Amino acid sequence: MPPAVSIIIPCHKAQDTIVEAIEGVLNQSMSDWECILVSDDGSSYLQHLEKLGIADPRIVEHPERSCATGTVAPRNRGFTIARGNFIADLDADDIWKPTRLARLLPLAQEYGCAQDILECFDEDGLIGFSGPPDGGDSPLSVENVVAFDFPFHLVVRRDLAGDTWSRYDSWVPDVIRTMHLADSASVRWLREPLLRYRVSTTSMSQSLDGSRRIDQAYEEILTGLSEKHGFGLSTPSRKHALHGITRKRELNRRYIQEAEAASIPEPFISWILTRGLSGRSLPAD
């Protein structure tokens, strides 16, 4: 019998953080899951865990080990062996709180997709949250998606996810994917901080170089939204997406400008949280 949820974890130079990520999975109050490790640095993370005394038959490894293929390809390899009726994303340096699956799965079963709040932390402790942690839930529209300045970690029904994590190979594939799901299905946003998101200066997506690549990705998305296909979005959603991605690009460019002038640039998420810019347009100069 297939598990209720397949958790896919891409692993790239994650030996120092994978134990905490796996412990967060093992501590889930809901036990009907499988966890698929997808190596993207040539290492066997299953062997790494077993050497540390961590073994569980629900934890498996994709047999193909690649090297530095990005964010989309490892997740899509995980899809090829996933057996669950629902798919959950987990980064190898993040930590789930024990009730995450138990809280999100019923919403995903009812609406198709569910997303919670991120509790952002670094080596010094809590930085902030990706939204107001008031315990409520509401629909996540395309307008909400493009106002969200953090990575998406959905629990999504398999038939909505298809056979791939994302059809778009981009530096912001989660934004494109979630826009499409919000437009074509019902995504529910649970305002509980159930995922601890690690903010690190070594994370490519949060670095100055990463923001430069993300700037190019935003340009590509804006071009796609202006073209006939529009990523398959409806006309109203495409208008919201154009406005929201333009805001995100301007915010990212401001970060690049300030980071280039800093002797030690802080990660993008620290920058946006400490300045209260999350979900907002830039103030006028």
Summarize the structure in words:
This protein is α/β, with parallel strands linked by helices and 285 residues long. It has two domains: 5-198, Alpha-Beta Complex (Spore Coat Polysaccharide Biosynthesis Protein SpsA, Chain A); 204-274. It contains ten helices and ten strands. It has helices at 18-26, 45-51, 72-81, 100-111, 142-147, 158-161, 173-184, 208-226, 235-261, 268-274; strands at residues 5-11, 33-39, 59-61, 86-89, 95-96, 112-122, 125-129, 137-139, 155-157, 186-198. Strands 1, 2, 3, 4, 5, 6, 7, 8, 9 and 10 form a ten-stranded mixed β-sheet that branches. β1, α1 and β2 form a beta-alpha-beta unit. The radius of gyration is 18 Å and the shape is globular. The termini are far apart. The mean pLDDT is 94.
Topology:
Layout lengths: L4 E7 L6 H9 L6 E7 L5 H7 L7 E3 L10 H10 L4 E4 L5 E2 L3 H12 E11 L2 E5 L7 E3 L2 H6 L7 E3 H4 L11 H12 L1 E13 L9 H19 L8 H27 L6 H7 L11
Parallel strand pairs: 1-2, 1-4, 2-3, 6-10
Antiparallel strand pairs: 4-9, 5-10, 6-7, 6-9, 8-10
Structural class: alpha/beta
Number of strands: 10
Q: Low-confidence segments, ≥5 residues, pLDDT <50? A: none
Q: How many helices in DSSP terms? A: 10
Query: How much helical structure, as a percent, in the residues?
Result: 25-40%
Q: Enter the CATH topology name of the largest domain.
A: Spore Coat Polysaccharide Biosynthesis Protein SpsA, Chain A
- Give the SSE string: EHEHEHEEHEEEHEHHEHHH
CATH class of the largest domain: Alpha Beta
The share of residues in extended strands comes to 15-25%
The fourth-level CATH homologous superfamily of the largest domain is: Spore Coat Polysaccharide Biosynthesis Protein SpsA, Chain A
Rg for CA atoms: 18 Å
Q: Roughly how many Å apart are the termini?
A: 59 Å
Largest sheet: 10 strands, mixed
Instruction: Indicate how many domains the architecture comprises.
Output: 2
Q: State the shape.
A: globular
Mean residue pLDDT: 94
CATH architecture of the largest domain: Alpha-Beta Complex
